């Protein structure tokens, strides 16, 4: 691969031209700057880790599982792997005190990725060791896989300068990112250096990134949005990035805005639920103190975007100077490196009955859908295809979203048949190999709209329902329903598909009477809105609705938990 085209080449240029430039500032849970990493500081620490990887027996192409709490040690290890030609496999760190739940997924990733070793820092390794000791006498708990663990914060500089690895071609794997699907059968997406290079370049153009960019982000560092759109984009020279822990945001949402106001942030990004949470957990008095007038891009991505959320957020945060035109809807997935479409401008009101039948019919007071923008990659293309017949859909018809561009990943690691089916789909009369996203949507005036997941569509008595529509209908049916605590799905029964809804309750100790009251309210609202009967409503505490680390509802995991007899 030509040096000028690789992500690391941009970092090398920065090292030569602006070694003292601040790249990342990590912020504590009170919004104070805790540690700033400069270009030279990151290059030096990453080179030290890269040299240690060689000493530990890593060769170019080997894989390393990265297990770190949020913070600078993860960034140093990630870049160290890239400098050494080692393929990083970022994972969410298993909680040492709840290994029974977390280790199943972790062990699945380790088995799938076949790493040379695991990289971590001293703080996490100590916690892991304590957790392992306390579980020695409980044979019901899964155990850590037999692998070597290395603490990268203990690496010491080598005597000679480390020679950076240069990718041999654009198709050389750069990182392995596991999707947030099944824990028992994880899929690792092979993202190449060519994928990363084009993704970062296109994002810089679309988002107006540059030397003057000041980004503030709390999205998890382990997945595509935080990993590539934040960390690796900054590595390429796109401004100064302030990083908060996701836990800080969840516990104290106001800190996000404290920091953005203080540093005059120009860019930020979050899933839809974060904007709902911001409205609920901040006060008018706090908003009056914040100055968000410098924000040019407020990206909403990683989960379905609700028009009502957007309206409420910009109404509540109007006094901060936040402009409505800063809102920037986007759609993407790991299998396409990150982004598919960017910069949505349209909000459509659609006939819900026609939409359930797969047709787009604009009407007043209908279901409101937020557009996710256009494909902006120079070689990119979006097709809407019938997922059953694999034939192209007509205008204003809903189908599966198929995409192709230079950021389409190489495939799933070690899963040849899955790769062939998902990454090399073809439409009649078109030789282009497309990626099947599994998402349903349509194009309107060139803009992409997402309506739901193909596998999540609920079919009851021949009628199609999107889970998001069902959840939207019942979310305010009772004040005891916890915001964001809903998941709807179907299970097979003797008489066909049965509709089930998981509901999280606001009360930590809800009695049977309150649970029954909430369930009854959900059933009545659902029937009133959709003339749909619900076979089972389970009301439980926070945690009943399973989610990914980025906050997306894992409906298939909820379905599996229900089938296995989850207790509430």
TrEMBL record:
GO terms for biological process: Actinobacterium-type cell wall biogenesis; fatty acid metabolic process; lipid biosynthetic process. Residues 455-564 form the AMP-binding enzyme C-terminal domain. The keyword Transport does not apply. Keywords: Fatty acid metabolism, Ligase, Lipid metabolism. Residues 15-413 form the AMP-dependent synthetase/ligase domain. It holds the Pfam family AMP-dom_DIP2-like. InterPro entries: AMP-bd_C, AMP-bd_C_sf, AMP-binding_CS, AMP-dep_synth/lig_dom, ANL_N_sf, FAAL/FAAC. One of its GO terms (molecular function) is ligase activity. Belongs to the ATP-dependent AMP-binding enzyme family. This is Fatty acyl-AMP ligase. It comes from Lentzea tibetensis. The lineage of its organism: Bacteria, Bacillati, Actinomycetota, Actinomycetes, Pseudonocardiales.
């Amino acid at each position: 691969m030509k040096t000028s085209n690789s992500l690391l080449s941009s970092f090398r240029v920065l090292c030569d031209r602006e070694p003292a430039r601040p790249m990342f500032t990590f912020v504590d849970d009170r919004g104070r700057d805790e540690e700033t990493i400069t270009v030279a500081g990151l290059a030096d620490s990453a080179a030290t880790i890269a040299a240690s990887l060689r000493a530990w027996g890593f060769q170019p192409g080997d894989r390393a599982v990265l297990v770190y709490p949020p913070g600078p040690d993860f960034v140093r290890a990630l870049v160290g792997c890239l400098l050494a030609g080692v393929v990083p496999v970022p994972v969410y760190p298993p909680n040492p005190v709840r290994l029974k739940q977390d280790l199943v997924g972790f062990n699945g990733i380790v088995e799938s990725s076949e790493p040379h070793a695991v990289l971590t820092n001293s703080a996490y390794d100590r916690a892991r060791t304590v957790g392992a000791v306390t579980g020695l006498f409980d044979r019901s708990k899964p155990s850590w896989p037999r692998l070597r663990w290395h603490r990268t914060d203990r690496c010491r500089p080598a005597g000679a300068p480390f020679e950076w690895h240069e990718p041999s071609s654009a198709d050389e794997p750069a990182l392995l990112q596991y999707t947030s699907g099944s824990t028992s059968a994880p899929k690792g997406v092979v993202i190449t250096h060519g994928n990363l290079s084009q993704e970062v370049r296109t994002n810089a153009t679309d988002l107006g990134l540059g030397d003057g960019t000041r980004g503030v982000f709390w999205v998890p560092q382990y997945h595509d949005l935080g990993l590539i759109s934040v960390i690796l984009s900054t590595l390429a020279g796109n401004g100064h990035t302030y990083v908060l822990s996701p836990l800080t945001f969840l516990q104290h949402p106001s800190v996000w805005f404290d920091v953005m106001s203080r540093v005059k942030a120009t860019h930020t990004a979050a899933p839809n639920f974060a904007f709902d949470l911001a409205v609920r957990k901040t006060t008018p008095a706090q908003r009056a103190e914040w100055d968000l007038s410098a924000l040019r891009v407020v990206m909403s991505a990683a989960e379905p975007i609700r028009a009502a959320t957007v309206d409420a957020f910009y109404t509540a945060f109007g006094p901060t100077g936040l402009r409505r035109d800063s809102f920037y809807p986007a759609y993407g997935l790991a299998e396409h490196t990150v982004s598919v479409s960017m910069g949505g401008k349209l909000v459509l009101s659609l006939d819900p009955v026609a939409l359930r039948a797969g047709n787009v019919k604009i009407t007043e007071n209908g279901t409101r859908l937020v557009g996710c923008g256009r494909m902006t990659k120079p070689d990119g293309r979006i097709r809407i295809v019938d997922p059953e017949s694999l034939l192209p859909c007509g205008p204003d018809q809903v189908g599966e979203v198929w995409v192709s561009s230079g950021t389409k990943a190489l495939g799933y690691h070690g899963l040849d048949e899955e790769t062939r089916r998902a990454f090399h789909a073809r439409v009649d009369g078109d030789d282009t190999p497309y990626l099947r996203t599994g998402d349903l949507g349509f194009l309107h005036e060139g803009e992409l709209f997402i309506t739901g997941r193909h596998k999540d569509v609920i079919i009851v008595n021949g009628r199609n329902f999107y889970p998001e529509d069902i959840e939207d209908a019942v979310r305010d049916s009772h004040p005891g329903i916890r915001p964001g605590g809903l998941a709807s799905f179907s299970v097979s029964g003797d008489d066909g598909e049965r509709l089930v809804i998981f509901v999280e309750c606001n009360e930590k100790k809800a009695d049977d009477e309150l649970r029954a009251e909430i369930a009854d309210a959900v059933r009545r609202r659902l029937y009133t809105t959709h003339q749909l009967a619900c076979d089972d409503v389970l009301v439980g505490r926070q945690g009943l609705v399973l989610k990914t680390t980025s906050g997306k509802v894992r409906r298939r995991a909820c379905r599996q938990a229900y089938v296995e007899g989850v207790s509430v």
